[in-house]
Amino acid sequence: MSIARVRIIDIFVLALVMLSPFSYGEPLSTLVDEEPPIIERDFPLSDIGYGGSIELQGSKSDTHIGFGSRLDEVITGGEFDLRFTSSPALQAKYSHLKVYFNQELMKVIAIEEGKQGQMSGATIPLDSRFFANYNQVRIELVGHLDLECWNPDDQSIWAEISKSSRLRITSRKIRLRNELGFLPAPFFDEREFTKLVLPVVLPNSPSIELIKSAGITASYFGALSQWRGAEFPVQIDAVPSQHQHALVFMTNDQRPTFLKDFPPVNKPTLQVISHPENPYSKLLLIMGRDTSELLTAVKGLALGNSLLTGSLAEINRALQIKPRRPYDAPNWVRTDRKVLFSELVNNKQDLQVIGRNASAVKISLQLPPDLFTWRSRGIPMDLEYRYSPTSADFDGSRMSVSINKQFVEAFNLNSSGVSGGENLVRIPLVADSLVGGELVRIPAFKVGSKNQLEFQFAFSSVSNGACKTVPAAPPNAVVDGSSSLDFSGYPHYIEMPSLRAFANAGFPFTRMADLSETVVVLPSELNAREIETYLQLLGFIGASSGYPAVGVEVVNDWVPAQLEDKDILAISVTPALRTAMADSDALPMILSETERVISIPVRNRQASLNIGESGRAIDNEVADNVNVSATGGLAAVVGAESPYTPGRSVISVMAATTDDLAKVSAAFNDSGKISAMFGSVAVFREDRVSSYLVGDRYHVGKLPIWQLIWYHFSDHPFILLACAALLITMLVIVIWRILNQIAAMRLRAGEDE
Is 746 helix (H, G, I), strand (E, B) or coil? Predict the structure, then answer.
């Protein structure tokens, strides 16, 4: 065969490959051998869940630092850069730190003489042979005091792991096959503990229905990301970065230019393909013949991803059989019945600890923001626990209960090894005497925020004689999964607007987990930044509820019929919103490129987070009104009552320019800025958040009539007393008239006889 014929055949084969639709799934670049990309990551402890330093207390105490390995990467090496400070009381000759990696001893770090009480450090290589899907670095302190007689639990035996300690990981990318069965990976990998950054690609001039589908998908991935946070950079009619996995939304008529020759679909379709420029990155194509089918494909992804396998799947049907009920968000604690501790943890092992200085048993939970416990005596907790029996009753061993770092009560641990009714008390919210009972009452839960219950077991040392401490087997303790909290019986009632409720729990939109009572209003002409803000907020709301927003409606005009009896999330539509509000003073702030107007209250007070307090506005009347013309970046989130339905809410996102919307997106990924948001106005300038509780207030929810009267008149005792006196007077008059009528009837009857 001649060389010319060989070249002609090669060209012909190459042309077939390039023209084939499968070239999108297997690009030409994969036909040649390529060196897999090397990824180097440097994690501070804050990126993997540690906000501060880690304390080791007592000899043989330890701590764990966990991290995951991505599905699309193989870790080839790593090291742990440890920075620590040891107690000045430690004896250098016998004291040291042991560092384990996945239960294998990596290094022993001696406490150097003269370095006690000073920052020290060591770099520990992590053997690549021991890496797994989930990895754990365990640091154990073996401490010894320079004393003839010393207690292993002495308070002077400690070491502090600095938050400046870091993990450095080197990994090699893996070329995954195009497989829907990996979902949600590699687009979201639960084994990665850093913030999710997932680009979204849209066609040029996307329709409002297509944008709606993208928002539902963002809420789905937001629900998956949970505490990690999520960002959804938007690219309009552009090829996504070759170094990131991305989502692509398109119909047969609306699609990005780089996929214009991709075969059309006949049904709602999900397909994974390789990036056209990088075989190690994947694109998830979400497709339909039209936007209606695209929405079906999105619901199939969000609700039925466990059914997906292969590189391509067609969604035949995605129907809601039973409507969602209010307050049934998966991330929220049930309030219609008792909740068992076993329902609040991922693994039963989370309720168990081992060791004399073990870390606390921690249980996280989130309450609906409108749970009304004003003047309640607290939330009852039925607590049961077991532990290794102590050598004698009341030998100093304790189990302490705290909520959100606030101490509640401590119980003695005795030789029985189980909790007893004699150790349980009722702790009221008000300062009255303790009442014996079978329940613990918890006073410090936060409305709409993450709460953390802690149960700290502390076992005293066993001594033999005056000097010698006898080592015993490590004690065990477990909080029984049948223990319960009871939030039932409390009504739902809250004063609005409340940006704290929105910032912490997405309320009032998350009242229905699927956002079936929510309408998002967007500008008629959208740019990438506005769409990105919309996706960011939907992702944040999904993370708050734990459920995708499959019931949300998205519009780009103010049609009353679409907005009645709905909560409204408005993004970058300030002029239209101002026109829709019949009362121009109903909005406490107006922000546009040329105008900045804000109302200031008489006194600005941050409402309490405690569930036992009303959180009612104090001195929220408008005292000043300021109108400013200025340049520079500024954004705001404003809450008000809906102009279409009393008791419904409007949350409006405003910005001086569309680029300033990034300040709002960043704020909802920052726990510090979230905690600073409250009231009816939150203003974002650079790294600052200023919140105001100003303007008209309204209430959402229902209370029994007697509780409603008592609540609203409790700050006006004289009015309440006058009403009570009037009511009693009217009652006396009615009774007097009835008695007079009865007496008159008797007199007439006597005369007739």
Answer: helix
Describe the chain by its helix, strand, coil percentages, rounded to 5: 25, 30, 45
The pLDDT of residue 282: 95
Are the CB atoms for 34 and 117 separated by under 8 Å? Answer: no
Spatial contact of 609 and 674, defined as CB atoms under 8 Å apart: no
Sign, CA torsion 126/127/131/136: negative
| Residue 462 DSSP label | P
pLDDT band with cut points at 50, 70 and 90 for residue 462? low
> In the chain, what are the domain boundaries?
38-173, 180-314, 345-486, 493-701, 716-752
Q: Report, as an integer, the average pLDDT of 145-160.
A: 81
Return the CATH number of the domain spanning residue range 345-486. Answer: 2.60.120
Max alpha carbon distance in the chain (Å)?
Answer: 140
Q: Output the six-digit token pair for 224.
A: 């998956």
236 beta partners: 202
Q: Which residues pair with 158 in a beta bridge?
A: 57
Burial of 80 (0-12, 13-18, 19+ CB in 10 A): buried
The pLDDT value recorded for residue 714 is: 62
Q: Which of 391, 653, 616, 395 is nearest to 502 (CA)?
A: 653
**What is each CA distance from 480 to 350, 487, 492, 593, in whole angstroms?**
11, 19, 30, 58
Q: Which residues contact 170 (CB under 8 A, 6 or more apart)?
A: 38, 39, 40, 41, 75, 76, 77, 78
What pLDDT, on the 0 to 100 scale, is given for residue 483? 87
Mean pLDDT value across residues 303-309 = 89
Q: How does strand 200-202 pair with strand 234-236? A: parallel
Token pair of 614, please?
């009303």
SS (H, E, C) 652-703: EEEECCHHHHHHHHHHCCCHHHHHCCCCCEEEEECCEEEEECCCCCEEEECC
Structure token digits, residue 437? 């009972």
Residue with tokens 């073990």: 358
Q: Which residue, 535, 582, 539, is CA-closest to 558?
A: 582
Q: Does the domain made of 180-314 have the CATH classification 3.40.630.30?
A: no
The answer to whether domain 38-173 has CATH 2.60.120.260 is yes
Distance separating alpha carbons of residues 239 and 260, to the nearest angstrom: 12
- Say whether 345-486 and 180-314 share the same fold: no
- For 24, 68, 72, 403, the CA distances from 43, given in Å and listed in that order, are 34, 12, 18, 30
3-state secondary structure of 711: helix
pTM of the model: 0.85
